Amino acid sequence: MVCWTGVSQDSYLHSKRGITMKKVIFTLSVLLASALFVPHLVFASSAQDLTTIPAPEGLMGIISILPIIIILVLLFMKVDMLFAGLIGGVLSMIIGGITLGRANELLLSSIPAMLTITVPIINSAIATAVFKSGGYASALALVRRGIKGRVEYFAAFIVLLMAAATYMSGIGGGTAMVLAPLAFAAVGAVPELIAAMCLAAAVSFTTSPASLETSIVSQLSGENVGNYVTTMRPYWILFTIIAILIGFFGTKMRGAAFLGEESEEIKAKSNRELLINTIPAIFLLFAVIVGPYINNAVGMPILGPLMYLVITIGLIALCTDFNIKQSSTALVDGSQYILTRLFQVGIFITFINIIGETGAFTVIVNVAQAAPAAILVPALIVAGYAIGVPAGAYVATILALILPIAVSLNLPLLAVGLITMGVGLGSQMSFVNITMQAQSSGFDIPILQVVKGNSRYILASLVVLVIIGLVMV
After folding, report:
1. Buried/exposed 312-339: b ≥16 CB within 10 Å, e otherwise
2. How would residue 94 be classed by pLDDT, with cut points 50, 70 and 90?
3. Which pLDDT value is given to residue 152?
4. Cβ contact 390:407 at 8 Å
5. pLDDT attached to residue 35
6. Confidence band of 43 (pLDDT split at 50, 70, 90)
């Protein structure tokens, strides 16, 4: 199609987008420059706790929270998280009279703070190496051979493996990319199985000792990763059991049957060889879950990160087709995902800290403190879920916005964890979430079908989570 100007419509639209982008960049440049010279409407503080900064009053109190609202709106519109953060950060510099020098200080402290959370980095890298060596594919093949046609048990094991693998690696999308095609080839696109896998992923990556989300919780709450993981483990187990039951009974109810055969590579292996292939995965799960208790009992880190890193990589080289060089390379390559995301979130948190220095979070906390204490945690859980639905691609970003409020209200660590889980549940109803996209691709169905299939089970899980927030906190 050709426009009246004689230029193709695609070229015309591209030109208009280019002009619009130039306008946006120009506007941002003007705003950033203005931030250097605008009078100080609110005095910036060097305090690390965002809510120790005095809250602006009256109209300025309302204006100070506008950057947070703008960021949320932009995330809902699927705008890149860093661009959304930049808009909010620059606006806050103008509102608060925060200098470029202070913004630089916040950047140079925020990024290193994220990158020093080493245990999740190590765990994620090791688990990715186990993935690449074929440990999980071998486990599925072994179970399929052993259950002799009882598909519902295979479905339950897929959900269990989804939870365990995500818990070890901290990456729900990466786990789904591996397991969804295997599940689809074996039993087809069973809606309950897909929903169960999504639920298992959500509760696992939000409570995992290896996830970006746990790193965010640790950084913002001031609690170490181990305390958070230990606090949330009973609830991870509870929701994992619920997910397994959904997968089991849903598959049985639909009368699913095995479809395709094993791959030629898997078919060529005996049960003994498959069992040996799964040893690294079994050991890593044991070390991550049971290791801390053993360490406390013996009084030394006999199964600390260094030991289980070395042992797992050695087991990969010994028990799989990978040699020691391939195992080491898989370890290093496996760190790329979480390191990249930690760097990305470190930049975003810089903008959140800039917003915090205007007193915006203190304003929100002051309002929240007026609410009845009994409904505060459930309300924050529902709010986290509601934000997670449209902005599910940015779970860590949403946490960086919501958790400072929860922490500032002196809510216990369990409440912080339940709110984090709420955001995770919302992400499993999101069209832009990586895990959801991986399920859509792996099961060869539209993502809308995934969302519809998930809705009743995710919403029911949200109700359970809210009840726990009412009763336990």
Report:
1. bbebbbebbebeeebbeebbeebbebbe
2. very high
3. 92
4. no
5. 44
6. very low
3-state SS, residue 170: coil
Q: What is the pLDDT confidence band of residue 12, given thresholds at 50, 70 and 90?
A: very low
Average pLDDT over residues 336-340: 84
The answer to whether residue 75 is domain-embedded is no
Under DSSP, the state recorded for 153 is: H
Helix or strand or coil: residue 33?
helix
Among residues 415, 430, 332, which one has the least CA distance to residue 374?
415
Q: Is residue 28 part of a domain?
A: no
Q: Show the domain range for 222.
A: 119-333
- How many domains does the chain contain in total? 1
Three-point CA angle 113, 205, 383, nearest 5°: 85
Mean pLDDT to the nearest integer, 410-431: 93
Give backbone dihedrals phi and psi of 2, rounded to 5 degrees, phi first: -120, 135
CB 330 within 8 A of CB 133: yes
CA 170 to chain centre: 8
Alpha-carbon gap, residue 427 to 8, rounded angstroms: 39
* Structure tokens, 10: 């695609």
d(CA 115, CA 345): 10
